[in-house]
Amino acid sequence: MRIGILEERILEFMQASPGTPYSDRQVGRAVDRQRSREEPRWARPLLEEMVRLRKLICDASGYYFQFPTAQQKSLRTRRAVMSFKTRRWLVT
Fold first, then answer.
1. Is residue 15 domain-resident?
2. pLDDT per position as a tens digit, 47-59
3. Does a structural domain hold residue 79?
């Protein structure tokens, strides 16, 4: 299934800060502020469809995330290791 212009804009917005949780209202406000004023939860059906298509992840509290890429996973691992080494250095 082909995604539309609004879905592409949502993905662009979420790719700007990967790993950050966003509510449907935050996404709607960032993508189309005018439409968000008229109908605050207009982005929810689009986000649910993108979750169904496995473009996004939704947690139990209703926040949406972008799927982490392999590069983001490795960066997260490196940060954890660096943080552990830094803590050990500061304690010693």
1. yes
2. 999 999 888 989 8
3. no
